[in-house]
Design brief:
This protein is α+β, with helices and mostly antiparallel strands. 30% of the residues lie in helices and 20% in strands.
């Protein structure tokens, strides 16, 4: 399969940060197409056609939130269009309101997870998602599960961090999105990399990996349904391009090799 790579990342993916690493995000920066837009959208359409039951899941309890999210994305990227859009790569896409996550899959690079907190529940639950580009996790294992279960088996996700993340999801406000990023070294540049929690991926060191994968992860509150949207914009860069960006930012090769 052809590698789909960006040449640069708008954030510094190797900047040290403490978990959960959350910062405010300007609404205008929520969804930002990049130089891999056309190639990533083509791959998303391919995955939706070939593996729909693996990359898209929606409980009926999440349908209203999914439709509200589709409205929000259309307002943000496509001047409020409701029936048809023309993407940045020139492709025309009909909007199917009966299939809101499928439509979202075809009009933006971002994957989206819908998290809702039922009345009297202690945690948000994953009620829907379109996840074409999983970074070593599997949607079917996380669907309709609470936040704590979703993050198993993340080593650093202890009870203290779980409580902080839940407070963050409880507190995020409409019109004030948040964001964070990660940085993971991979041998393989493939965007679609599902893995079971029982089969964790081999983790190469920075000096041994050919590619860096970084996700811009955003958290947004929808005003009507009050659902929380977790957005994932995936960047994959070759090692050479990472080295170039790192050098421009003033980082040393020794520092680069310490990031895994």
């Amino acid at each position: 399969m052809t590698e789909i790579l960006q040449k640069k990342i708008p954030h510094n993916p190797l900047e040290p940060q403490r978990l959960p690493g959350i910062a405010p995000l300007a609404v205008s920066d929520w969804l930002t197409p990049d130089d891999a837009f056309a190639a990533q959208l083509a791959e998303r359409e391919r995955l939706l056609a070939a593996k729909r039951d693996r990359v898209l899941m929606l409980d009926e309890s999440g349908r209203a939130a999914a439709q509200e999210l589709l409205e929000t994305v259309l307002d943000h990227l496509y001047d409020g269009a409701r029936e048809e859009v023309t993407r940045a790569d020139g492709a025309r896409v009909d909007i199917d309101w009966a299939d809101p996550l499928g439509s979202l899959c075809r009009i933006t690079q971002q994957d989206f997870c819908l998290l809702q907190k039922p009345e009297d529940a202690p945690e948000h639950i994953l009620t829907g998602a379109v996840l074409c580009f999983p970074a070593s996790w599997t949607l079917s294992e996380k669907f309709m599960r609470p936040l704590t279960a979703i993050h198993v088996p993340v080593d650093s996700y202890d009870a203290n961090l779980a409580a902080r993340v839940q407070r963050l999801f409880d507190g995020v406000q409409v019109g004030r999105p948040l964001w964070r990023f990660n940085a993971l070294w991979y041998h393989d540049a493939a965007l679609h990399q599902p893995r079971s929690a029982n089969a964790p991926r081999p983790k190469p060191k920075a000096g041994q990996a050919g590619f860096l994968r970084s996700e811009k992860q955003t958290i947004l509150r929808l005003p009507r349904t009050r659902a929380v949207v977790f957005g994932i914009h995936t960047f994959v860069l070759s090692r050479a391009d990472v080295l170039g960006q790192w050098a421009q930012a003033g980082g040393s090769a020794d520092q680069l090799h310490t990031v895994v």
